[in-house]
Amino acid sequence: MLSQKIRNNASISYFFLGWLFLLAKNNPNFADPFIRRHAKTATKGHILFFVAYFFYSHFLSGFLSYPIPVIQITIAHCVDIAFFATLTLFIIRGVYAGQKNGSEETAENGDGLFSAEGRTFRFSGASEAQRIILLLAHIPFFGMIIAKRYPNIVTVTGARASSVFWCLYLMVFTSGGFDSLSMILLFIGILLLVFLAARFFMHDDYTVPGFLERIPGIESVYGIVRSLPPYLMDMGKMVFGKKDVISFRDHLKDTQEKDQNFRSSLQGYFTDETLPFRPFWIFIPFFNLVFLPKLFMSRTTRYVLAIGQGLIITFLAICIGVFHSFASPLESFLLFPIFYGIASLESDVFIRIPLVYEIYAMLNALSFGLLKNTKRIQAVQKQEKTVSFKV
């Protein structure tokens, strides 16, 4: 059984240090055959990458300077990203290979492997697949799905942090295109993923930084934002002497109770679970148009809110295309409601996507009961307002 020090050195060789380890053949810390084998693999991979990228950037990239719709970058830029993405995967795979120690992976289900002690998350004995899950939670957008299916402190904070980071990146990219600042942010993102991959594969625990825990979830932010208008109205009443005591906590609690009552009412009425395709297609723009007949044919489909919001996403994509361009990077921001809807649909079929649901509710109110099931939603909403008024 190889020592942890030997395995760590084998993994470190993939961080562009393999050639130094080969030169230090007389050093007992790097003379082990296991380290030298990985150092040779790392050195060959890095040399192949730099030679191929040098040849491409100097002789071929000029022939690929054609812009691509939507993302507003050239084919040459995409090839650049592909080169560095391949290098990133090579490093991640090499780090894991250095830690694997040649042993076969057991088919474990992961029960009992994960444990949390404060902000420290321990996963001693976790398999390759389970460690990959921790890494995938930090991948933009896909992390939302991982955090819903495998909720723990690492996946949840990772998904939230990646969402914030890539929202910032999209804002920079939308305003400046594929400029130096967006390239720097993209490089930082790749560097962080490589660091996390090395951390998850080389160690059996991970301490979540305290500031990541302070990032609120979408559900929390959504509840707070919706509680602000009535709270501000109470503040105005207090200024004019019409109210003596105000409490934001009470408004937030009232919003949460309304959400629970709304969900319970819909669960008791919409019971049809049949769909012609897999539910995740509901949130894929344009493809989700195939679900439109479901709103007319079934009065009790449980996916009424999901289909309505999915169609709103398609509507927003069309609006951006008409008023800006279908090649506009603004279309990229729709990835947030798309993946949030896909991630949440399995656990909450009556999920309400922030902003998208508000647009849907407004159009629903203007439909004058055109659809039978939307009329039922309007009745539930009126019932909520009546109960709130009586309380």
List keywords for this structure.
5 strands; 391 residues; mainly alpha; 3-stranded antiparallel β-sheet; 16 helices; disordered C terminus
Report on this model:
- The chain is globular, with a radius of gyration of 26 Å.
- Residues 102-113 and 386-391 have low confidence and may be disordered.
- The strands form 2 sheets. A 3-stranded antiparallel β-sheet has the order 3-4-5, with no helix packed on it.
- It has 16 helices and 5 strands.
- The protein has 391 residues and is mainly α.
- A hairpin with a 4-residue loop joins strand 1 and strand 2.
- Helix 3 (33-59) packs antiparallel against helix 4 (75-100).
- It has 3 domains: 1-103, no CATH class; 110-215, no CATH class; 256-390, no CATH class.
- The termini are far apart.
- 63% of the residues lie in helices and 3% in strands.
Write the layout of secondary structure elements.
Elements: H1 4-12, H2 18-23, H3 33-59, E1 67-68, E2 73-74, H4 75-100, E3 115-117, E4 120-122, H5 128-136, H6 142-149, H7 153-176, H8 180-202, E5 205-207, H9 210-213, H10 218-239, H11 248-269, H12 292-297, H13 304-323, H14 335-345, H15 356-366, H16 372-390
Antiparallel strand pairs: 1-2, 3-4, 4-5
Helix pairs in contact: 1-3, 1-4, 3-4, 4-8, 5-8, 6-7, 6-14, 7-8, 10-11, 11-16, 13-15
